[in-house]
Design a protein that fits this description.
Blueprint: H1 17-32, E1 37-41, H2 48-63, E2 70-73, H3 80-89, E3 93-95, H4 98-102, E4 106-111, E5 128-131, E6 142-145, H5 151-161, E7 165-166, E8 177-178, H6 188-202, H7 213-223, H8 228-235, H9 241-253, E9 255-257, E10 260-267, H10 275-283, E11 291-298, E12 301-308, H11 315-323, E13 328-331, E14 334-340, H12 351-373
Parallel strand pairs: 1-2, 1-4, 2-3, 4-5, 5-6, 10-11
Antiparallel strand pairs: 7-8, 9-10, 11-12, 12-14, 13-14
Helix pairs in contact: 2-5, 2-6, 3-8, 5-6, 5-7, 6-7, 6-8, 9-10, 11-12
Bound molecules: manganese (II) ion (MN).
Length: 375
């Protein structure tokens, strides 16, 4: 029989060697820059893993006595589940503003990315990067890096590994030890909920190839601390009305040749672009369907989501064949593409031209889809 773990027992670390090996260096670098204003930054497409990691790092900084570290991102939080996460957990996430660039004495920590990729456009050099992707940090930047299932796992381990702090003892009492990973701390349940969601989503429920025992260990540990209510509220997030409108459109615009289906949504508002991946997933659930492309024109680009469960098609090839070698990619049956129309200013176009542009786009991508799937 196993003994349930005492929620108040002293926390153990996950034991990731890459975290352990960098702990001292991390603490030193924070100490060295402690007078600065810290910004913890997500990449441009904040997802549960990057949001939770950033919040976790901000929590560590506060524990280390850094005044008011800020969590920031550039780009958009578009997926309705990610918005639900921010609202339900009340995560103090702020959007990048150009004023930050002008501030003196700032220090930036990038999480879930290393800073020299396309998905990170915050124009400041990081002091520290914490990441789990196959990518190398820029030269000279202090990095905590391991190719595991999620960045939230690394951050959870870091939280557990930070040495406890002694409170100032009263005259006749001894000081008590305070831990960074402390279920009694303010907002800790919410933070644990966020980190658990980060691990769950980034590992695709522990099915991704990169999932390690560390991810599972961190998840189990966090699950003892989460708010069950809030966790399920986010997992079963509410959908905005436009999602149902988009679904109706996707259904009526579909070109279906079972097991293949493609559907174009026309011009999609930037703020509604999350309907594209959502509907690609949904269409995959249609009986007999194995390969789906849902796409639309968002701003000056075509955005597409590609899915396949077919054993004869490779999703990455499919993305590249339909949308161009450099415009898309996929892993494990899930992919996407962005094709820029940067010679046009679509918003300024007369309605008729826009209509024609859409017709051309539709004809071309449907043709390419047919060609790529009929092999
Ligand atoms: Mn991640």
């Amino acid at each position: 029989m196993t003994t349930p773990v005492d929620k108040k027992s002293v926390p153990v670390s996950i034991g990731n060697k890459r975290v352990k090996g960098k702990l001292e260096g991390f603490l030193n670098i924070i100490e060295e820059h402690r007078h600065k204003r810290f910004y913890v930054c997500s990449h441009d497409n904040p997802d549960p893993d990057s949001i939770a990691s950033a919040w976790g790092v901000a929590h560590i900084l506060e524990f280390l006595g850094i005044a008011e570290p800020q969590i920031i991102y550039r780009g958009d939080v578009s997926h309705p589940q990610n918005r639900a996460m921010i609202n339900v957990l009340n995560i103090p996430l702020r959007k990048w503003s150009d004023e930050i660039k002008g501030e003196a004495d700032t220090a930036f920590i990038f999480v879930d990315c290393v800073g020299n990729q396309k998905n990170m456009t915050i124009p400041s050099d990081p002091l520290v990067v914490i990441d789990h992707h196959k990518a190398t940090a820029p030269k000279g930047v202090f990095s905590i890096h391991d190719e595991i299932g999620s960045c939230s796992t690394l951050v959870t381990d870091l939280m557990l590994s930070v040495p406890p702090r002694n409170t100032v003892p009263d005259s006749d009492e001894e000081g008590t030890e305070l831990y960074c990973f402390d279920s009694e701390a303010e907002d800790f349940r919410e933070l644990a909920t966020a980190l658990a969601l980060g691990i769950k989503t980034d590992t695709i429920d522990f099915r991704s190839e990169t999932t390690t025992d560390d991810d599972i260990k961190a998840y189990r540990l966090l699950c003892r601390q989460i708010s069950d209510d809030k966790f399920s509220k986010i997992v079963n997030y509410e959908l905005p009305e436009y999602m149902f409108d988009a679904e109706q459109l996707a259904w009526s615009n579909r070109v279906q040749d079972t097991p293949n289906l493609i559907s174009g949504l026309g011009f999609v508002d930037e703020g509604h672009s999350d309907s594209i991946p959502y509907l690609a997933d949904k269409m995959m659930r249609l009986r007999g369907i194995q390969t789906v492309v849902v796409y639309g024109i968002v701003g000056n680009s075509v955005r597409a989501s590609v899915r396949t469960s077919s054993s004869s098609l490779d999703c990455d090839n499919l993305c590249k064949e339909i949308f161009g070698e450099k415009n898309g990619g996929a892993k494990q049956g899930v992919g996407g593409a962005i094709v820029s129309f940067n010679v046009f200013d679509i918003e300024q176009m007369p309605e008729n031209d826009k209509k024609e542009l859409w017709e051309l786009t539709k004809t071309e991508f449907e043709r390419r889809f047919r060609k790529a799937t009929e092999k």
